[in-house]
Design a protein that fits this description.
Elements (H helix, E strand, L loop, with lengths): L6 E7 L4 E4 L5 E14 L5 E13 H10 L5 E14 L5 E15 L15 E2 L25
Parallel strand pairs: 4-6
Antiparallel strand pairs: 1-3, 1-5, 2-3, 3-4, 5-6, 6-7
Length: 149
């Protein structure tokens, strides 16, 4: 039986993208994405937790990220978990988990410093997914009688 490896994240960039141009017109961008959640602990105090995710974008997505994304940009990401294994200079085996981005959508306003910039397209290696910004809003009022179920 085949498995599923899918990640969906919505968060803010912790730094500008780090973009590297490699041989053969290959481009890679590395980003750091913060996702946060808040809850109340047993004493009623608000606790906020932030998780940091390392993202990897390739080729056209990397070029779009370099052009449009800045520290603080909010993005919606779909991808898969990948792991890198290597031996460091001290001979220790290392492993790092990252998210290989398959598609992303910029959410929120235009990046600062780009007042007249047109909105950039969603970056995807396949068919674009509906973004949270363009997905239809569904609202159910308690007095609504014509529910489809």
């Amino acid at each position: 039986m085949a498995g599923v490896n899918k990640v969906i994240l919505l968060g803010h960039l912790g730094a500008d993208p780090e973009v590297k141009y490699l041989e053969g017109d290959k481009v890679v961008a590395n980003l750091s994405l913060a996702t946060s959640e808040a809850y109340q602990d047993r004493n009623g105090n608000r606790v906020e937790q932030t998780e940091w995710h390392d993202l990897e974008l390739w080729d056209q997505q990397a070029k779009i990220a370099e052009k449009y994304l800045k520290k603080g940009s909010q993005i919606y990401v779909e991808g898969k978990i990948k792991s890198d294994k290597w031996t460091d200079e001290q001979g220790q085996n290392r492993k790092k988990m990252k998210i290989r981005v398959l598609s992303f959508t910029m959410v929120g306003g235009k990046p600062e410093g780009m007042p007249g910039a047109p909105a950039a397209p969603a970056a995807s290696g396949a068919m674009p997914s509906p973004s949270p910004a363009t997905a239809p809003m569904v609202s159910l009022d308690e007095g609504e009688d014509d529910l489809p179920f």
